[in-house]
Amino acid sequence: MRIADVMTTSPVTVCAEVPVAEAFRVATANGIHHLVITDGQLPIGLVCVRCDLADALPRQPVGWFMSCLLYTSPSPRDCGPDLVCRLLLEKMGGGGGG
User: What's the pLDDT tens digit per position in 18-62?
Assistant: First the structure.
């Protein structure tokens, strides 16, 4: 099996503030189980609709349930303490998403 057999080249995204019910609708309409969560145009995480959202309430923001965080190095939105934490995680390991 190749990764191309199970992954798409154009991932479906939803904004972190989108309600869980809308995320379910988007995933179902696209026949997928995983969504990329965005903050504006930046991808910030992943959510598995079946696993991560199983116990979520329909109106809760989908961003609360991300199982995997994505990191850019460094993000243009990082300031002070956030940048320090991000760089420490990247240099010392851990926090790399997964």
Answer: 999 999 999 999 999 889 898 888 888 889 998 889 899 999 999
72 vs 25, 66, 87, 89, CA distance in Å? 28, 16, 10, 12
Assigned token pair, 50: 């079946």
Report residue 54 CA to chain centroid gap.
16
Distance CA(55)–CA(78), nearest Å, equals: 31
Cα–Cα distance for residue pair 40/44, rounded to 1 Å:
10
- pTM here is 0.66
CB neighbours of residue 38 within 10 Å: 18
